[in-house]
Each structure stands twice: as C-alpha cells, then as structure tokens.
Amino acid sequence: LLKKGLLSREVNLVTNAPIASGPVVSGSEAFVEWLLAHNRKYAAVEMETQGVLAAIFDRVKNRSSLVLRCVSDYGDERKKEL
After folding, report:
1. Of residues 44, 41, 5, 1, the one with CA closest to residue 22
2. Could you tell me if 67 and 42 are in contact, meaning their C-beta atoms sit under 8 angstroms apart?
3. How far is CA 59 from CA 3, 23, 50, 63, in A?
4. Do 25 and 75 contact (CB within 8 A), yes or no?
C-alpha cells in the first residue's frame, strides 16, 4: 500500500475544512462533480455523520454536537485496492 501511494506513514491533520455529509456515498463520478460545483474546498465526503446528526436532531431537545472525523480512504476507484 505504501509503494502504491495508498497509505502514508505520516498523519495529515486538517482543521476547519468543510466536509460534505449526506445520505449518499461519493463513489459516483457524477456526484463528485456535482459536489465540486458547489464547493471545491471539501476536505472529505462521508455519510456516517449525517446519520448520527439526523438521529440527534429528530430525537433530542439539546442538539449541541461535536464531530471529530477520521478519513481512512480516498473514496474513489483507489478504494477497491484497499
């Protein structure tokens, strides 16, 4: 994985970067193009946080929340190699 450039020995910490989160995955090239047309600065695309926050907002009166996210793959054709 290191030789293929799919894994790094270094951790890359990104803060205050927008993350797209919703009920669909980013495997579709057309969906990625649609996202980038809206904001080219997304650091990541994921769907797990959307589900957690939707459950909180549907059921909890105090809706304060904090999300810490770790990204483990590229979410594109390289993901199959992992």
Report:
1. 44
2. no
3. 46, 18, 14, 9
4. yes
